[in-house]
Amino acid sequence: MKTTAIIGGSGFTQISSIKIIEQKTYQTPYGSPSSACSIGELYGQKIIFLARHGNPHTIAPHKINYRANLWALKQAGAEQIIAVAAVGGITPAMYPARIAIPEQIIDYSYGREHTYFAENSESVEHIDFTFPYNESLRQQIILSAQSLKLNIQASGVYGCTQGPRLETAAEITRMQADGCDLVGMTGMPEAALARELKIPYACCAIIANWAAGKSTGEISMPEIIINLDQGMADTEQLLQQFFLTQTSL
Ligand code: HPA
Q1: Residues 190-222: tens digit of each pLDDT
Q2: Which of 36, 43, 172, 218 shows its CA 20 to 30 Å from the CA of 183?
Q3: Is 221 helix (H, G, I), strand (E, B) or coil?
Q4: Rounded to the nearest whole angstrom, what is the distance from the C-alpha of residue 184 to the centroid of ligand 1?
Q5: Measured in angstroms, how far is the CA atom of residue 86 from the centroid of ligand 1?
Q6: Tens of pLDDT along 102-159?
Q7: 157 lines ligand 1 (CB under 6 A)
Q8: Helix 135-147 and helix 221-246: axis angle, to 10°?
Q9: How remote is the CA of residue 151 from the centroid of ligand 1, in Å?
Q10: Does residue 205 have its Cβ closer than 6 Å to ligand 1?
Q11: pTM of this prediction?
């Protein structure tokens, strides 16, 4: 049974079913993480929860200290990480309020502190990142969804943009031509840093809206909030089921 950390994204700043035992604030060689780690319990298992954008939600995607966040989770004892993230849907299967468990990433972000190997060039390690998400963890999440009969998309390529603005329609057309199914702003460097720290990592992406140009009109915040609420309720159920099945591992 591995200690699991959840990184909560927009609209997912806590999990109501977790009994929080303590809040621990870590300092790291890379500065302060976005929030304290909430350490709690679900079905008798330790869970660590970190709010990616802070609690309350104040840190923009390009300003998140991803290195400190992942380091703090490692310090807290995380042995696997499920990252919950709001995304836009690009391809037809990725419709709003649905959950996707992506399997690949294309990184369009820039200027972020994206590696732990920046300071000491004598020990640069070129991590293998062919498959950016941990496949066994992905499969466990997918199985949990299937046992709940949740209609999730068990695949997808996540394109990570810089934000905080949303994309232009032409940018989304280009991303689709590149092979992206989903667009979000926080998937990188988070996934790569987890790999550098050798922590299995998978993403539970909640589709908040059609990406720019994929529906008529502008992307509206009220629409995003309604879809996120639905996706969040499903995600909470999914995580509970995930933890329930972990107890038998
Ligand atoms: N683009 C980028 N990030 C997002 C979106 C989007 O349309 N929706 C939610 N996060």
Answers
A1: 999 999 999 999 999 999 999 999 998 889 889
A2: 36
A3: helix
A4: 5
A5: 7
A6: 999 999 999 999 999 977 666 778 999 999 999 999 999 999 999 999 999 999 999 9
A7: no
A8: 100
A9: 21
A10: no
A11: 0.95
Does the Cβ of 148 fall within 6 Å of ligand 1?
A: no
Amino acid at 193: L
Kindly report the CATH number that applies to the domain delimited by 4-248: 3.40.50.1580
H helical segments located in the chain: 66-75, 135-147, 169-178, 190-196, 221-246
Does residue 207's CB lie within 6 angstroms of at least one atom of ligand 1?
no
185 close to ligand 1 (CB < 6 Angstrom)? yes
Instruction: Please give the Cα distance from 98 to 205 (Å, whole number).
Output: 8
Counting residues of the chain whose pLDDT is more than 70, the rounded percentage is 96
φ and ψ at residue 175, rounded to 5 degrees: -65, -40
pLDDT digits (tens, 9 = 90+) for 15-33: 777 788 899 999 999 999 9
Q: Which bin fits 118, alpha (ψ -120 to 50), beta or left (φ > 0)? A: alpha
Each domain of the chain, given as residue ranges in start order, spans 4-248
What Rg value do the Cα atoms of the chain yield, rounded? 17
